[in-house]
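subagent[fold] <- orchestrator: predict structure for attached chain, return tokens only, no commentary.
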Amino acid sequence: MEVYAGLDLHSTNTYVAMIDGENNVLYKQRHRNDVLAILSALDPFKKNIQGVVVESTYNWYWLVDGLMDAGYRVHLANVSAIKQYEGLKQIDDRRSSLWLANLLRLNILPTGYIYPKEERPTRDLLRKRLQLIRHRTSHVLSVKNILARNLGIRMKTYDIKKLKAAEVGALFPDKETRLMVMSSIGLIQHLQEEIDGIEAVITKKLKIRKDFMKLLTVPGIGTILGLTIMLEVGDINRFPTVGDYSSYCRCIRSIRTSNGKVTGYGNSRNGNKYLAWAYLEAAHHARRWHEAIRSYYERKISRTNKIVAIKTVSHKLARASYYVMRDGVDYDQARLFA
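subagent[fold] -> orchestrator:
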């Protein structure tokens, strides 16, 4: 007898359901989020279980690792690609877990990538770095806003990061505004120290693998961005085409058309937000320091706006990176910006 298991994972509990090869229900029960409790539920059927489907939620690490350590064949369900019949009047945890198991039984389950366990902590540390950078940027923008609102002046980001209390006192006579600015300056400097610390740990522990080394030839991509892309991609061969990779990097607009008319929009958040950020960062660096890219960016601005222009550059860099990683070749500017 073949058995297929579907696990609907939540923050505090998991609904476990199992079916046989004829879609007959064998088991359905909710369990607390404890790997031993879930393994105990699966154990009577272990010899016949063909696979276990786990919903890809924010907290899947512990469950997938526990199941794989116990010898189960685990599939991470790509929830955004799974569509249930819209005419159903009721959808609950029991039906969802049975649906996952049935998709596996029919061999039509859209799956996600189970990232190697040993590399996850380093990847997540780089993701923490991104979070800190965003916090730092929000405080830089806050200071710029205060300067523009009160003094009508603009200051470069580099200069804001280096502001001292005496300089802020000379700019603002009132105590309240000085306190606002200095609170942001203090946080900017603290966040910068944390970011520098993370980068030091990452670069000491990890080096760019040989198959990703050519990424450093792509404009705007240095060691940290190269490591970020390497850790987020994992295996470039899981993307059959450059279009699949660009879509995963959120570089392709999610839109539906029919007869030349827009009929709707898809989920623009499908894909990897960290890769999307990495290529935007690379695009900003590239437009500053590479003449061909700067010229292309300025031509785009003349016809559209800055946001569209920089997104277009990031899309081009993502496509170039795909071929660089897949084929192990150097970046060729003539092919990208002819």
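orchestrator: received. Logging for downstream: The domain at 3-114 is CATH 3.30.420.10 (Nucleotidyltransferase; domain 5). DSSP finds 13 helices and seven strands in the chain.
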